[in-house]
């Protein structure tokens, strides 16, 4: 088998790849060794900026198959007929850790899906939890800073986390999930996924519905004990990444049931909780899960960097028939996510193959670092040269809003405790013991005044919840 000729990035043959050009056998090296300069310069730039969150991940390709007629709710082509199949790429991730962190850390897991639809990219950028720590995007950078490394010492400090949470009771619902057994999934195949936010559907009549997306694992739910997770962090830090890749290689293709909750638009005005609050769930009794399809992963990426690392998701990637909602966190992410991708991958990141739509793309964006021919028509609109024009059929119906523009305190009149307490009471007695033991364990180095503030929040969720943590810390409340 003959070898291919090694070339530079410009395609020129490389005459020597083992020794640099030097002035004499002992040097020094000459800058005229252009192959050496190119190798070093490219090496210095091999790492694109790490994601601020969701830095470490794994991904695979698959397909969504629709099993229920949804035309009454949405005109989105992805739902246009029973049996319809849409290709997709799904990236799983941990959230707070860096790219080299262990897969088995206690952390939410990202569950981001890129659907390659006939009308362009539709991204569902969610987690393995139906809620989140915050409901207002202005708090997101502060929350993440509290979870990251101490800027003085360079290591993670639980005091910072619990100090923040002592003043953020809206996080209690997500915290209860995080510190429960489900806080450490046994790999990515054995967990559910959620769009988490409230989105909207609209149909051909212009009627709007609010919707939540759920992905229920057909493999079942499996979790790791803290002891097993700690062991794997040392012996196999890429445990979840490896498990997903090898399962697909064995043709054990993981699947999820795709379900939705549907709320008529006018129900939002009278529902018992704010349906656009990311710290809250909708009762399944009020809005039952409707199974609409099956999601299957069936192909591994060929190149981790090109496909998993450069995969770029944004909830702003929405297609006709699927829209946003007044969810404040979602509204913030509509800007923040594509902005982060432009910083990380460049302004033309959606030309990278894994991010590129499968349908035709026609716009007036030009220049920057390109991966295509940069367009072959004038870059302004309107014009008289047959350039792309708007399509009024993609128009979203009006969104009914009212109220004065102001900075509203979301804690006033809002109940941050009941749903966390409901979740606590759903747990078995053994699961409550594990939950409270994990929380107490993370608080042992935290100053008592901060601990007591947090205990008061847990007690408001359920008196037993706070008391069990206090007893395990030896603190009288």
From TrEMBL:
Its cofactor is heme. SMART domains: Catalase. Residues 1-25 are annotated as: Disordered. It holds the Pfam family Catalase-rel. Residues 7-389 form the Catalase core domain. The keyword Metal-binding applies. Belongs to the catalase family. This is Catalase. The lineage of its organism: Bacteria, Pseudomonadati, Spirochaetota, Spirochaetia, Leptospirales. The gene is katE.
């Amino acid at each position: 088998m003959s070898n291919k000729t090694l070339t530079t990035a410009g395609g020129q043959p490389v005459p020597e790849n083992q020794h640099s050009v030097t002035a004499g056998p002992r040097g020094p090296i000459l800058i005229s060794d252009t192959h050496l300069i190119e190798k070093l310069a490219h090496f210095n730039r091999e790492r694109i900026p790490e994601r601020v969150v969701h830095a470490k991940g794994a991904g695979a390709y698959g397909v969504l198959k629709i099993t229920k007629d949804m035309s009454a709710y949405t005109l989105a082509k992805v739902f246009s007929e029973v049996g319809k199949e849409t290709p997709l790429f799904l990236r799983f991730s941990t959230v707070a850790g860096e790219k080299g962190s262990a897969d088995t850390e206690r952390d939410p897991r990202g569950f981001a899906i890129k659907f390659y639809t006939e009308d362009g990219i539709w991204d569902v950028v969610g987690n393995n939890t139906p809620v989140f720590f915050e409901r207002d995007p202005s708090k997101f950078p502060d929350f993440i800073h509290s979870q990251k490394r101490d800027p003085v010492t360079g290591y993670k400090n639980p005091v910072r986390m619990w100090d923040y949470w002592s003043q953020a009771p809206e996080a209690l619902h997500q915290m209860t999930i995080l510190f429960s057994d489900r806080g450490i999934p046994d790999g990515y195949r054995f967990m559910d996924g959620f769009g988490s936010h409230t989105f909207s559907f609209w149909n051909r009549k212009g009627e709007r519905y609010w919707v939540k997306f759920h992905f229920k694992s057909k493999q079942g739910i499996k979790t790791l004990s803290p002891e097993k997770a700690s062991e794997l962090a040392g012996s196999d830090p890429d445990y979840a990444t490896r498990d997903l890749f090898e399962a697909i290689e064995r043709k054990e293709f993981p699947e999820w049931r795709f379900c939705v909750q549907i709320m008529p638009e006018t129900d939002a005005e009278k529902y018992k909780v704010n349906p656009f609050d990311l710290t809250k769930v909708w009762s399944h009794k009020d809005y039952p899960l409707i199974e609409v399809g099956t999601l299957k992963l069936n192909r591994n990426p060929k190149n981790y960097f090109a496909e998993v690392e450069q995969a770029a998701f944004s909830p702003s990637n929405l297609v006709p028939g699927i829209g946003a909602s007044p969810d404040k966190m979602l509204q913030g992410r509509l800007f923040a996510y594509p902005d982060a991708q432009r910083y990380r991958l460049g302004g033309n990141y959606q030309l990278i193959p894994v991010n590129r739509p499968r349908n035709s793309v026609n716009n007036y964006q030009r220049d920057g670092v390109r991966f295509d021919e940069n367009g072959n028509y004038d870059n302004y609109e309107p014009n008289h040269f047959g350039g792309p024009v708007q399509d009024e059929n993609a128009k979203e119906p009006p969104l009914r809003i009212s109220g004065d523009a102001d900075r509203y305190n979301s804690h006033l009149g809002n109940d941050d405790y009941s749903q966390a307490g409901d979740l606590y009471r759903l747990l078995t007695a053994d699961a409550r013991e594990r939950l409270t033991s994990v929380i107490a364990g993370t608080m042992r180095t935290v100053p008592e005044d901060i601990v007591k503030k947090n205990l008061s929040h847990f007690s408001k969720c359920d008196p037993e919840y706070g008391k069990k943590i206090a007893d395990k810390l030896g603190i009288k409340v």
